[in-house]
Write a structure and sequence with these properties.
Length: 89
Amino acid sequence: MTDFEKKVLRVVLKIPLGEVRTYKWVAQKCGRPRAWRAVANALAKNPFTLLVPCHRVVKSSKKYGGYALGAALKKDLINLEKKIRDVIE
DNA sequence: CAATAATAGTCCC
DNA sequence: GGGACTATTATTG
């Protein structure tokens, strides 16, 4: 666990329910606008895939990118969270 | 030092 | 809008 990874986790954890952000966005929040590679690494190498909403972190506004548990599951989770948000609101 | 990875931006059709 | 190509960064052996 490195300090950079901690920053990444903290940033990802504060993403609102049903909201999706890009890896670039997370990288900027960590102070490294061009560290999205390391951001993906931090999420992929750690078991935090189930502890942090890393499924809300997508590639760009067009595609969802990948997911350790399956891109299909990630997409499904995002869609599901949108429904949840709609329900609780 | 080299390899790796869950990307982003740009060019072209 | 979508496919192909390149640039970029932190971590690990």
